[in-house]
Prior knowledge:
Strand content of chain A: 15-25%
Radius of gyration of chain A: 41 Å
Low-confidence stretches of chain A: none
Distance between the termini of chain B: 19 Å
Oligomer: heterodimer
Amino acid sequence: xxxxxxxxxxxGLSAMIDKQSTLSRTQLEISSGQRIATASDxxxxxxxxxxxxxxxARGEQYVKNAGFxxxxxxxxxxxxxxxxxxxxxxxxxxLQANNASQSNESRAALGREVREQLDNLLGIANTxxxxxxxLFSGYQEKIQPFTFSNGVLTYHGDDGRRxxxxxxxxxxxxxxxxxxxxxxxxxxxxxxxxxxxxxNTGSAVISVGSVVDNSAxxxxxxxxxxxSATDYDIVDDTSTTVSSGTYNQGxxxxxxxxTVRLNGLAAAGDRFTIQASExxxxxxxxxxxxxxxxxKTSTAxxxxxxxxxxxxxxxxxxxxxxxxxxxxxxxxxxxxxxxQEENLNENVNVQLxxxxxxxxxxxxxxxxxxFNQTLISLQAAQQAFARVQQLSLFNxx
Amino acid sequence: xxxxxxxxxxxxxxxQRALATTSHNIANVNTEGYSRQSVSLGTNIPQNFGFGAIGxxxxxxxxxxxxxxxxxxxxxxxxxxxHQAQVYTDLAAQxxxxxxxxxxxxxxxxxxxxxxxxxxxxDPSSIPARQxxxxxxxxxxxxxxxxxxxxxxxxxxxxTRLRSSVQEINGLASQIAELNESITRARAQTAGNEPNDLLxxxxxxxxxxxxxxxxxxxxxxxxxxxxxxxxxxxIVLNNRSMAxxxxxxxxxxxxxxxxxxxxxxxxxxxxxxxxxxxxxALNFREELMDPALAxxxxxxxxxxxxxxxxxxxxxxxxGNLGGELFSVAAPEGVASRNNSxxxxxxxxxxxxxxxxxxxxxxxxNGSSYQLFNARTGSAEPTxxxxxxxxxxxxxxxxxxxxxxxxxxxxxxxxxxxxxxxSLELAISRPEDLxxxxxxxxxxxxxxxxxxxxxxxxxxxxxxxxxxxxxxxEFLSPTTYQINGAGSFTYTxxxxxxxxxxxxxLEGTPVAGDRFTLSSNNxGVGDNRNALALAGLQDRGLFDGGNTSVMESAxxxxxxxxxxxxxxxxxxxxxxxxxxxxxxRRESVSGVNLEEEAANMLRFQQAYQAAAQAVSTSNSLFQTxxxxxx
Lengths: 397, 629
């Protein structure tokens, strides 16, 4: 084919320009480490990479979230653990006090320790972490959750629980409100309370009792009313006598599906109440114990009242411990969830990163080889151009 | 002898001409559009004798221009296709680069914004975490603004291109018209000989014109060419050229359109221009820029609408209701400046999930309105009469007119395009970020049942009773009253709506159990609203609820990338086609210096031989003269 001089020149030139542009492109790929400089280089891969970038950023955020949740849950766990230790100490003190060998003075001494432990518990319930954020006040974390005065615990927080997202559609509650950790504890045996009337003149002490027939227990309140030292009526909340019986010391009395045991001598007019468990809080339970210990006793009926009080305190403290252990278990479960989700997110992120790298990163060996090849062919093109341009018939005329 | 002398002289004259042509070829080796010329020689009329005819030398028949009309036409076609793709790629690549870069793209900023809300949900009362959200929100709005600003810049660049292209086209068109005239004259003067250099100049001007737009060239009477756009608008007729011009769009003063002045007046012909750099720029504006701006605007609006709704259902650190988080411009409707009536159009978004990314033209025909998609031209069904009380409803928009327009009046409806760069953060103090829900529910401490709160959220932030305290008290395990009144049936797990809040309880309550709904004042540790805002990342806001704002951003990235890629592939394939055609033309018409050198030698030798023939003829004559002495 006939070739014009211009064409010969242009061909050589555009070959060099092509090689230069390939060279510069390869250089960019090598220096950035990425195959895709702009989305138009590979639109499908670029769109996938954008999606993966967002997924990775979100996965990293979930890992951060898990870190926050773990900090708060660990703080809550340690507070609840402390509270359980205090309550166990208080249960020991109660058992110690519930002993005939104790005098009024020694009981008062125990009472002082109970009051100290009460302060301790209040401190735990008002635990703050970080920059003055209270752990147990629900949403109102800047407000001290509990105040305790005149034997009455006031909760200033709310029932708010914060969900922390650990993954798509997966979240964990990072702390429980104080109203559900330190309060809301069912008294007695958890189903009902067996209480002695404060005006009892006999020395009978009532046990905590238990529900023996769930279907018969209707959660109403009943009174065991002694008409004499050996006879009693069982009266329901509508003042109707539902049954009567005779009492011997140590007898188990059954009513409405529950049984309680009485020990000691009853007197006519003595009353014992069986009522569905009310909910109380740790501090009030401990305050009740302190007051019981601080009461001086001299008569048999006073001692019986104190024994009844200590029985109640013992079961209430056990309920409180049970309740806190439940909270502790739930925290432990949640900490496990946090760990699992964190691991999951980290693993997923490693996978996403490797997918992203496959899509976007340049194969450095391949790129370096390509760079060298292009360089060599550019040099060849330059030499060929120079040689061809030297040739001219005019030179030899 | 005289014959010999005449023949030799005719050869000398002819080879002088041939050498002159070779020299002309060598001189124009680098002239754009030059076609090499060659001398065609022929024998002179022989002298007849009884024994036969004796030749009487050589003469120049013609000087031919070496060219191939088909290749010249092909070059024009591939040039306009190449320039169209090239300009389109140049413009699209600017946006492509901006959106692909994680430091300037929209998707990365959206992802960071939503992550900052997640971060806030970890510690909602933290001022640094709140500042983090504000910073990311600010970053997001400026990304939108910068992408939209890039388009504004490109739009101005297109205006500049239109202006300068129109000038150049006019220059080339009038050059072609003049050349038409010169060629006709030259032909007449030289008794039909080809004015080779003028023809080359005209072909070159046509070639240059084709880089601006697709043209049709029609030969007339063998002398002149008429030039039309590929859609049939005449640009050059014989020795007259029509002037192109620019004018502002009838709806948008900052958008220029191309006009053509013809005998029948000045008309807008933007939509009739195909191919070339002009066609590329106009194509880009209509096919990529307009939908992309509308898409950006739709994302801005959808995000602002959803985030504002959620934010106003929340409570700030100071216990106030959240209010708006973002502000965004209103949808736009403009009347054409050519309208004879004075009706103004107002547009509102009726349903974000139904919004398209197109603009619309509204036309009044004297009795009813027609709505057309501005890009595709297809009619869009509407309901309503167009009054404020009964607006036209179509494609998620609600359109109303201030008065009845005159017949034929037109309006441009841009539901979202003008919102693209307008997203702004409406709050500036970190305290004003509503991370908490506006209300909370607390169970009474002495509840004996095991009914517990599952969730509570605000469903109607505009409820005037929203922050009032309300008490829900159970009368029995299956009935409850609110604020001591009424008796409603309770089903565990079913939502209960009170004062604009929605509460879900589960478990079995006991008569007397109470739950209190109240303002969440002081609930600074509440992260429900922050989580709900973060949840917008995945919520389907567009296309009937199928597309989230994140997906919109990647779709936009993908659309622009695909368009850029396609046009760049198109540009390089058209470029190689153009190069092939140029090579074919060069092969036929280009000057080869070796060939000219060889020709020069050849003609020089022939000239020398002819001169020798003159000399020989002379010496023969001398011999004869001497014989008679």
